[in-house]
Design goal:
The structure is a homodimer. Chain A has about 400 residues and is of the alpha/beta class. Chain A has eleven helices and 17 strands. The first copy, chain A, has helices at about 40-55, 70-85, 100-110, 125-135, 150-165, 190-200, 225, 255-265, 270-310, 340-345, 375-395, and strands spanning about 25-30, 95-100, 120, 140-145, 145, 150, 170-175, 205-210, 230-235, 250, 315-320, 325-330, 350, 350-355, 365-370, 400, 405. Chains A and B meet through helix 1, helix 3, helix 4, helix 8 and helix 9 of A and helix 1, helix 3, helix 4, helix 8 and helix 9 of B.
């Protein structure tokens, strides 16, 4: 292997070098993978063939000739979906298609933030979001959660305290509908309280709805953007509703925001075939697809809950999610999941330690996030049993598994 | 249209807001569009159908389960192509697939640069590259060009001068093979001189080969990376050899570099269907595709040269490119192309003003870049005639068109 001679030329800031990829763990409860059995293989194959036959020559043009906001039929589909399912009033001009919702997040962050700015995020939230904010030099303030999302009394205290210190937070980043990692859905009344705080404290809201399409209930309360479009930036994704390897997400906001986002989108466009395929397939079969996907995910969640009940018993407190692909759980307070995460990975069991999904890592030492979408049902059962075995070896918890007292 | 209420929360640094997209110009001589007639529509449609049928369930996994470096069969194809055509010794482990070569550029820049760092670039170069370097706060030093690329005597003077001032340039960014915008190919002897300077002055080289696959001649001199892999980072793209709307490019470098690049690639993967389609189609038909594409582009170049000869006569000095999709030309020194660029655009004629493709904008005031790949032959002829008419109206040049003296 060739060595690079000028290592002293590397930037000394920025993230750590990555480790080489060594394959997927046998029991893979991490990342936002989806259910392979629910990928509509035949339909996507036929869609891809059809859209390339119809629009192939346009691939010679950046953005398929549709401009930097992206492929217009997909923007039209996004707008229609948001009108019908999220009480959002918008059209294709209000949508920018992105390379996944991670790029959407980068673009929105960059539109607002300079180093030293303050942002408020949920105390437990998507680890990637915290990492991105930290790399931008933001001061992160944690808003406490309960089973209905952000606690508004606590948020008001934070906002009043910041105002008292002359600090204007640039935005609140929130996942109100199927929160990551807790799986909660913020009720309507609390959404209205949040928007009232936004008004009283001049607080822009950055709403991430990447899991909304796979909420178990058929109707969630309206999106925050639907309730107050002049105070909210809304992002979403097709990673969870269709497939994460397709890198397409979207931003919906007023032109004041989108024009700044587009000034920062210097990638010459997001993937064209994937935009066309999603527009064609979801344009015809969005409802049908979700009607199959949601119960399939729900079944896997039930399998995981059963397995956790059997293997961990009362040692694990489960936060049963209202949708999505992951389960957040808490072990007894003296357990620090970091003490066995690497050992578990070495033995083929991958989970997200709570501290990686928290503003204050130590506050989530006893928590973990388990994604249930990828493994099949038997693998979920075996993996949870392995997890319990490894956890017991390192922490003495769970004391009982399947009603049998463990002895170390 | 909803207005965003918190405009005072926007970052005050960063690029200007974008203007709304108003459609494509009638005579479109800008961007790196390709030839719509040369998109292999049937083949891509069949490839897409096939790869989705074969690998569809893997779309449920980030990176199709192949890890952050990207879809392995495409990395294998890239390595094979580089071994066979660029004298590069590498394999799939040496390749990171990216979302176009623009993301590759962002990742490499970020791996090396901190604000205030110095980089050397060709005096005329890709405008997007200069913009990216400026946004990162780099000091840009221009290396003079002649018909064979960077002048080595001038580069040595620059390096000696920087060393004398205690400045270590982080890298030289170069497009040695079908240079953008001049269309030159650096001869072998000069490549060796460049690598000798790299050795003597500890100069890392950032080699951009996005146009190499469409050089007219069948064999270009070896890639710089092929000659000195421990001192070069190599990037390339499928935008020019296949289609720019497919967002797939690549970085080839030692693991020291790639591990840092991957630490910065926080997008959860580049587009999966596009990676699979390119691997399948180019894996079987790369040579055949280029054997059709190159003469088609060459014919359009000839049409453009004929039209420029007819419309501009001796007023335009043409730098006939050795490949690629654009032509660089110079009008008489007193003509500043910026004086009529907007008026031309308003009349449906879009070109790249030289100043946007230069480190020192004023040094390229009389230059322009014309892309010939997108318009059909009649549109090229009409557009060049329109360009000459508009140019004459604003500058009195060309005095003669089609051997007829112009009167204003």
């Amino acid at each position: 292997m060739t060595e690079f001679l000028f290592k002293d030329a590397f930037s000394t800031t920025g993230p750590e070098p990555a480790a080489p990829f060594t394959g997927l763990p046998r029991y893979n409860f991490v990342f936002g993978h989806n259910d392979p059995a629910e990928i509509p293989v035949e339909e996507l194959a036929r869609s891809a063939e059809k859209v390339i036959r119809e629009n192939g020559p346009a691939l010679a043009m950046y953005h398929l000739g549709h401009g930097p906001q992206g492929y217009k039929p997909l923007r039209e589909f996004v707008a229609r979906k948001l009108v019908e399912t999220r009480a959002i009033s918008c059209n294709a001009d209000d949508v920018v298609l992105t390379s996944g919702s991670l790029q959407a997040m980068d673009l929105v962050n960059s539109t607002f933030l300079e180093p030293g700015d303050t942002v408020i995020v949920e105390e437990f939230t998507y680890g990637g979001a915290v990492g991105k904010l930290q790399r931008l030099g933001a001061n992160i303030v944690a808003a406490p959660l309960d089973g209905d999302g952000i606690r508004m009394d606590a948020l008001e205290t934070i906002l009043a305290d910041l105002r008292g210190r002359g600090v204007r937070p640039k935005f609140l980043y929130t996942i109100p509908t199927v929160q990551n990692p807790t799986g909660s859905i913020m009720p309507m009344e609390r959404r209205q309280q949040l928007l009232s705080l936004s008004e009283r404290y001049d607080l822009p809201i950055f709403e991430d709805e990447c899991y909304t399409d796979i909420a178990w209930q058929s109707e969630s309360p309206p999106a925050l953007y639907g309730l107050a479009p002049s105070r909210v930036v809304h992002i979403g994704s097709f990673s969870k509703s269709l497939a994460p390897a397709l890198r397409v997400g979207y931003i919906v906001a007023s032109w004041d925001v989108l024009s700044r986002v587009l000034g920062r989108k210097t990638d010459a466009g997001s993937p064209a075939i994937e935009q066309m395929v999603i527009a064609d397939y979801f344009g015809a079969q969005f409802d049908k697809h979700l009607a199959a996907l949601k119960p399939a995910l729900r079944r896997k969640l039930d399998v995981m809950i059963d397995a956790l009940d059997r293997e961990f018993g009362t040692s694990a407190e489960l936060f049963v999610p209202k949708g999505g692909i992951f389960l957040w759980l808490k072990l007894p307070h003296h357990v620090d999941v970091r003490s066995f995460a690497q050992s578990a990975l070495d033995q083929g069991v991958a989970f997200n330690p709570g501290p990686e999904w928290a503003c204050d890592p130590d506050s989530a030492r006893s928590y973990m996030r388990l994604c249930f979408a990828l493994p099949d049902e038997d693998t979920i059962r075996e993996g949870v049993a392995e997890l319990a075995r490894i956890c017991f070896e390192h922490t003495g918890v769970p004391e009982r598994r399947a009603n049998v007292v463990q002895r170390s």
